[in-house]
Amino acid sequence: MNNFLKGTASVAIVLIVSMAIHVFCNMKGISLDTVVTTVVSASFATLIYHVWTKNKDQ
Fold first, then answer.
1. What is the mean pLDDT of each run of 10 residues along the chain (58 residues)?
2. pLDDT at residue number 55
3. What pTM does this model have?
4. What is the DSSP letter of 33?
5. Dihedral-angle region of residue 31 (phi above 0 means left; psi in -120 to 50 means alpha; beta otherwise)
6. Cβ-based neighbour number of residue 37 at 10 Å
7. Which residues contact 3 (CB under 8 A, 6 or more apart)?
């Protein structure tokens, strides 16, 4: 259950940051590619989760 909550928290952090970036870029008239944004967001969420759980295992 603890790992599930850590995974949920890492996804929530990435989504909040991604939303802030999208709002800022939309206000400036910059269009972001959704495919690239999705891949980068998923990669960062996985990276945060692995770093967060790796430190506890050691």
1. 88 93 93 89 92 71
2. 65
3. 0.79
4. P
5. beta
6. 14
7. 53
